[in-house]
């Protein structure tokens, strides 16, 4: 078990803009882990990069080294957009992410697969050691439990998912052509839900094309995805089966004239338009077109209320689950640290025992000890070691359970010749800075 502590930093949809997320995004997760491992003192690293978050976790001898490494890693983002956490809070956050509590859509499933992929990428870059192995696999376990044992991912709670559901009640989305107008958070959610619903083609139109490209880059390869500038709205809107608008415009951006081409060749097939804008993105007269059905926020609210409340109840269950699993993770770290001290103690005792047994056998009369004599002496020595070390073994395990890291630190100094007084903290959770022999409180985010 590593003797370091976990430090993490992140830029997410809550802390930064789309531009800040783009600035923080690495070339790849694996390359990012490799980069972090080049920093002196960083023993392990894990990076999770999605359209809504870039998070990096490192293990180092202390938080100062971890913070310095992460500050350099996120140098491209504004300081105000970067959230840095220390050991306990970092681990809790990772469990929350995998469980879907930190997602834009509460309880969404995609993030769990992304956590797994990031884990594989970090392993390929040799970034996963004993501490992050325990942490990330625990996060995946929590994410799986949350989705199988609670209703955290049932129903729809976002307007983006509600828009897709409403459109699906009007037409078959499988293989359909979808247009999302707007590349903000709501447009991003709508695009993701339409992709999941199986549309064959997805176009994202936005004034800033680069923002639209950021959404399209996250779309699965099986969906034909492209971007369009807003001035081409008449072309792309006319051929779309479903249009979802989600902009911050003060004036309607979609008018009947944008659909004239579709109306000219109108068939029995209807176009469905879902307006998520407030104020409205779609001119009211658009609904008068014979082959167009327009739905607004009032039409969608009833779809989300019940499932929003349902997931809120489930979220409270997941919160309690996370606290229990976090406690188990902390205990796992503690046992590992106690076992490290116990192993060092036994190894030291074995070295002394072997030396003294050979000395005793060489002093026996005659031509040396017989095989039977050797067996008796070795058995006696083994028995002495086991009996003498049984009480301190019990004490070390109790010390770890009680966060008495001073005792474990002393044991390592006594029995491990490679353990130095300046090796940094050895306790992983609530980790105790040892002051005058007493374990203290760990560093917090306010440090």
From TrEMBL:
| Residue ranges of every copy of the Quinate/shikimate 5-dehydrogenase/glutamyl-tRNA reductase domain listed in the record | 172-303
The keyword Phosphoprotein belongs to this UniProt entry's keyword annotation: no
Output the superkingdom of the source species. Answer: Archaea
Compositionally biased, Polar residues: which spans? 430-441
For biological process, the GO terms are: protoporphyrinogen IX biosynthetic process from glutamate
* Major enzyme class: oxidoreductase
Which InterPro entries does the UniProt record give? 4pyrrol_synth_GluRdtase, 4pyrrol_synth_GluRdtase_dimer, 4pyrrol_synth_GluRdtase_N, GluRdtase_CS, GluRdtase_dimer_dom_sf, GluRdtase_N_sf, NAD(P)-bd_dom_sf, Shikm_DH/Glu-tRNA_Rdtase
Q: Does the keyword Cytoplasm apply?
A: no
Pfam families for this protein: GlutR_dimer, GlutR_N, Shikimate_DH
UniProt: substrate binding residues: 50-53, 103, 108-110, 114
Task: Give me the reactions it catalyses.
Answer: (S)-4-amino-5-oxopentanoate + tRNA(Glu) + NADP(+) = L-glutamyl-tRNA(Glu) + NADPH + H(+)
Q: Return the annotated site residues (Important for activity).
A: 93
Residues involved in NADP(+) binding = 182-187
Annotated pathway: Porphyrin-containing compound metabolism; protoporphyrin-IX biosynthesis; 5-aminolevulinate from L-glutamyl-tRNA(Glu): step 1/2
Record region (Disordered)? 426-447
According to the entry, every stretch annotated as the Tetrapyrrole biosynthesis glutamyl-tRNA reductase dimerisation domain falls at 317-416
Which keywords does the record carry?
A: NADP, Oxidoreductase, Porphyrin biosynthesis
Show where the Glutamyl-tRNA reductase N-terminal domain sits: 12-150
- What does this chain do? Catalyzes the NADPH-dependent reduction of glutamyl-tRNA(Glu) to glutamate 1-semialdehyde (GSA).
Domain comment in the entry: Possesses an unusual extended V-shaped dimeric structure with each monomer consisting of three distinct domains arranged along a curved 'spinal' alpha-helix. The N-terminal catalytic domain specifically recognizes the glutamate moiety of the substrate. The second domain is the NADPH-binding domain, and the third C-terminal domain is responsible for dimerization.
NCBIfam families for the chain: hemA
What does the further note read?
During catalysis, the active site Cys acts as a nucleophile attacking the alpha-carbonyl group of tRNA-bound glutamate with the formation of a thioester intermediate between enzyme and glutamate, and the concomitant release of tRNA(Glu). The thioester intermediate is finally reduced by direct hydride transfer from NADPH, to form the product GSA.
Spell out the family assignment given in the record's similarity comment: Belongs to the glutamyl-tRNA reductase family.
Under the subunit heading, UniProt states: Homodimer.
HAMAP family, sorted: Glu_tRNA_reductase
* Protein name per the record: Glutamyl-tRNA reductase
- Protein's gene: hemA
